[in-house]
Amino acid sequence: MADTETRSAGRGGSARGGGARGGRGGSNGSKGPNVLQQLAESQVIKSIFRTGIPRSRRQRMMGVLNNVFLHLHPVRLPKHAVKVKYTWCMGGLSFFIFLVLTITGILLMFYYRPTVEAAYGDIIDIGSQVPLGIMREIHRWGAHLMVITVWLHMFRVFMTGSYKPPREFNWAIGVLLLTLTMFLSYTGYLLPWDQLAIWAVTVGANMARAAPFLGHEGPGASLLSIGDVNFVHAGADAKFALLGGRFLGEATLLRFYVLHCIGVPFIVMILMIVHFWRIRKDGGISGPT
Amino acid sequence: MLKQFFNWVSNPAILFSIFIVVFFFIFPPGEKMYRLHRRLKLDKLWTPVGGIVFFSLLAIFFLWGITDENFRLIVFKPDNIPITALLFLVPFFLWYSMKQARDNDLRAEKGEPPHEALDNEKVLVWPDLVYVEFICLILSMALMIVWSLFLKAPLEEPANPTVSPNPSKAPWYFLGLQEMLVYYDPWLAGVVLPTLIIVGLVAIPYMDINAGGQGFYSFRPRMKSISIFLFGFVVMWIFLILVGTFLRGPNWNFFGPFEFWDVNKREVLNNVNLSEYVYIFLLRTGLPKNILVRELFGILLILGYFAIVPGLLAQTVFKRLFQRLGVVRYSFFIVLLLMGLALPIKMYTRWLFNLKYIVSIPEYFLNV
Ligand code: HEM
User: Fold this and answer.
1) What residues does ligand 1 touch, defined as CB less than 6 Å away?
2) Residue range A181-209: mean pLDDT, rounded
3) ipTM for this prediction
4) What are the structural domain ranges in chain B?
């Protein structure tokens, strides 16, 4: 129905301004373009959003295609895939919360110094001295929320059988994302450097100590030796690698800080790119065939 | 009175047993169980009425619970809020997916396509999808802001490596693993089993070769895989997290939801190794000096578990499955399954026989 104007749409077509009014604008009874519309048709806006106001079907499609963020999506998709009922929006929410965590995390990095002397005090200051002092709260509760949404996303993908061919590999990428999400949370847990932090991390580090072959109190570690020379001992094992020392301390804090702020997010972002790419390449959101 | 009852029921041994029994009636893994499930009308749980009844009961229990001080203390501890949320979120989404699954199963019985298939007309991403995403985004942002305004992020005393809190707990999402430490040593509970969980999850699409039920909610065409997965996710993962968070107090002792966390609570620990059972109670010879002789029975038991049981199952219960999967897939499947079952098995041998280790070679840190 909108086809007649579709052909003339695009940059030139919509420059006529009133041209698209017949399509949709007319239905709300507006007479002539109002200020907002004029603004939207201005050169500035049009230079940013190439297609102008998406009124016609073609403009809507071009709007998605021409926008680097929106074009993560296909242009058209089956109706069931759009419904919250089907996806629970959990994958999208995981991604969105990840973005929120990145932004709040960057803000926190302005104030936080990863040293044993400064860390705890900086955390207090972030809550009491810094304007908009809920960044730490949003970051912490957001992190909890992301763990939950990622679990529920996995749960949804399982329940709709969406891991089946051709999406097996994307499921595997997802499992890595799930693991890394939890590892991100875990490394962040240490940074406040309070009792909760160091003892929670200690529980995990003690498990590394017991890793088979790689931990100095793990089964098989004593086999990795030549004569009297042990390769795996308290000064060179999985726990040491995790903590950056025999005990939790300055080196651990720095190590966890770097992992938390750069190392793991870097890997997560790469995996997310692959994840999203594969969703498209595997034929979009799954559906009954 | 009622509180004492709930404290008693919450004992992991009892609660877990109840869950296991009830679970397979609600999520039948096979055709026979499924027919029973339908005859008992348990599938009515996945109707709006069933959902309302279930969630009302849950809510009533919760509201009644928070009149109790000890209950409030653990449920509203700031870092426990996400798990309190999980207490409702997981059942809700379980219900939501199973409701759609049941609807689709009933449609399939009448020869109709799943309801997702009715929505196959194409819509545009702009505005249809962007609009939904936008609303989700606003709502979740609002949730995070409100949550953050009302609940301060916890900050305890400055770190002090010489004073360890009791209990000393990992972040909540690892509490399932920490709970496993009760039954297995760290090298298994903290390293091998988590690795196998990851491997097992990745392996799911390669082991489940049933092509049916893809792209829509369903239960019946995928009974086996769904009940195995849900057993792992709900009973072994979420449940253990709940136990680790709410029911484990000082010294990792068990405390009922209405029980005061008494630091001085003592639990008799008289766990016995398999070797001690054999050589001291049965043969009455005392433990032999040679490690291999001492642990012979345990080692045989474990070898048998992984070498003989798969073959036995392949010829009996899993005969059809074995034929369908072939040797390679079946081997992966059965090893992962047996590793997964090793946890409940160890739990029960602990509860019933106070069995500590099946194989215990502390000389090499090898305790199973
Ligand atoms: C950081 C974590 C993750 C993010 C940001 C993410 C994001 C997404 C998004 C946005 C979608 C589109 C559909 C939807 O929203 O449901 C999706 C689909 C999918 N995800 Fe994830 N995901 C994550 C983790 C996972 C995990 C843990 C798994 C599985 C173990 C997984 C497996 C899949 C699969 C198989 C699909 C395709 C589903 C279909 O076609 O219906 N993802 N993911």
Assistant:
1) A 87, 90-92, 94-95, 98, 150, 153-154, 157, 160, 162-163, 167, 170-171, 174-175, 177-178, 181, 272, 275, 279, 285-286
2) 92
3) 0.94
4) 2-117+218-252, 125-154, 274-367
